[in-house]
Amino acid sequence: MVHEAVTIIDVAQEAGVSKSAAARVLARRGSTSETMRTKVLEAAHRLGYRPNQLARAMKSGATNTIGIVVPDVAIPFFSAVLRGLADTARAAGVEVLVSNTDNDADVEARSLELLAEQRVDGIAIAPVFQEDPAAIIRLQAEELPIVLLDRRMPGLESLPLVSVDHVAATERAVRSLIELGHRRIGLLTEVTRERAVLDDLSGRVGDPYVRSPLRPSAQRFIGYLRALREAGLEVDDDLILRSGYTTQDAQRAVEDFLARDTGATALHATDAVLSSGAYRGIRARGVSIPDQLSFIGFDDQDWTTMVQPTVSVVEQPQQHLGATAATVLVGIIRGAATEPVVHLLEPELITRESVAPPAQAR
C-alpha cells in the first residue's frame, strides 16, 4: 500500500475503533486506555500510516473546545442552559460547539460523531430518550469526557449527571399547597408510566431515582406522591390529569378535569408547556384563580407575570445548570476530581397571587 493513501479512517477500520478514537491516539491527545492505544498504533504500523499526516491536520494537545448537544435549543430552558454553559466555558478559555437533535436519536448519533471528529475535548448532552444510547456508550468507551444534562439513560449510570432535583421541585410546590390547607390537589403531567411503579420508588429510603433512567416528568410525579405521603393524604387517581406534551392537549385535559366534580381546590402543572395550557384551560372554564382554584405552574415564563393574578411557579436554575455542567466537564478534561458524580441543583418556589388557602379554610 502506498503510504500517502492511508487515512485515519483506514487506521480506525483496521483497529476496529471510531475515527475520533484513532485521531486521539495518533495525536497523543487526551486519555485513552492502553489496549486501545496498542490496537491503533499496531494498525497504523501495519498500514504504514505516517503520524505527520495527522500533525499537519490538527494541533497537538487539547483543542480547547467542548460540544453541547440538546433536543431543542429554541426551548427557553435549553437556551438558558446553553447560555450558562457557554459563558462559564469561555471564562475558562474553552469555546463551545452546539448541536440540536430535534429529539431524534439518529440525528443525535450523527451529531456526536461529528463533534468527536471535530476533536472536541468533551461533550455535555441532554440525551434523547431511548433504550440503547449506543452512540454515547461508544464515546464513553473511547474515554471521551461526557457529562449528562438533566436526565439519565439506561447504560449511562456511571456518567456524571448535572440536573435540577426534579423530585424536590414538585414536592416543594405540593407541600406549599398542603401547608395552605389544600387536601384535594390536582397534578397535570405528561407521564404515562403506571402509578404503581412510581409509588414504589416514592416510598423507598434514599433517592433511587437519581441513578434511574426516569424522565424529569416522572421524577416530578414522584415528588407529588412523596408530598402527599408525608402529609398522610391518599393518592386519588381522579386528581391526576394525563396530557400530551402540547399546550392544546394540556388545555383540553384541564377543561375536562374542571368539568368533573372532583372537589379539587388546587392544581400543579409539572412543565412549562403544560403550565401555559393549564392556565388557558382554567380561564376557558371561567374558574377564578385563586378564589376557586389555586394554581402553581412550572418555569418562570414571561407570561406568568403579565396575567392577573400573577402565577406562582417552580423555577429551575437554568443558567446555573449550564454553568455547573461546564465546570464539571472542564474539570474532568483537565484532570480535576469528578466527585460527586451526581450534581443536583435546588429549584426555587416563587409564590405570587395565584395561590391562597381553600375557600372553606378562609
Index terms:
Rossmann fold, 42% helix, 6-stranded mixed beta sheet, alpha/beta, 14% strand, 12 strands, 362 residues
Word description of this protein:
With 362 residues, the protein is of the alpha/beta class. The chain has 3 domains: 3-57, lambda repressor-like DNA-binding domains (434 Repressor (Amino-terminal Domain)), CATH 1.10.260; 65-163 and 318-345, Response regulator (Rossmann fold); 165-316 and 348-361, Response regulator (Rossmann fold, 3-Layer(aba) Sandwich). 42% of the residues lie in helices and 14% in strands. It has helices at residues 8-15, 19-26, 34-47, 51-57, 76-91, 105-117, 134-141, 166-179, 195-202, 216-230, 247-259, 272-284, 318-333; strands at residues 65-70, 95-100, 123-125, 146-149, 161-164, 185-189, 240-242, 266-269, 294-298, 312-315, 342-345, 348-350. Strands 2-1-3-4-5-11 form a 6-stranded parallel sheet, with helices on both faces. Helix 2 crosses helix 3, helix 6 packs parallel to helix 7 and helix 11 (247-259) crosses helix 12 (272-284).
| CA gyration radius, whole angstroms | 24 Å
Sequence of secondary-structure elements: HHHHEHEHEHEEHEHHEHEHEEHEE
CATH class of the largest domain: Alpha Beta
The CATH superfamily of the largest domain is identified as Response regulator
Structural class: alpha/beta
Shape: elongated
Query: Roughly what percent helix?
Result: 40-55%
Enumerate the spans where pLDDT stays under 50 for 5 or more consecutive residues: 52-60
- Count of alpha and pi helical runs: 13
Number of DSSP strand runs = 12
Task: Tell me the fraction of residues in β-strands, as a range.
Answer: 5-15%
Distance between the termini: 88 Å
- In total, the number of domains comes to 3
For the largest sheet, list the strands in their spatial order: 2-1-3-4-5-11
Largest sheet geometry: 6 strands, parallel
Kindly state the mean pLDDT as a whole number?
87
Classify the fold: give the CATH topology of the largest domain: Rossmann fold
User: What's the architecture of the largest domain, going by CATH?
Assistant: 3-Layer(aba) Sandwich
Pfam families: LacI, Peripla_BP_1
Keywords: DNA-binding, Repressor, Transcription, Transcription regulation
Protein name: LacI family transcriptional regulator
Organism: Microbacterium suwonense
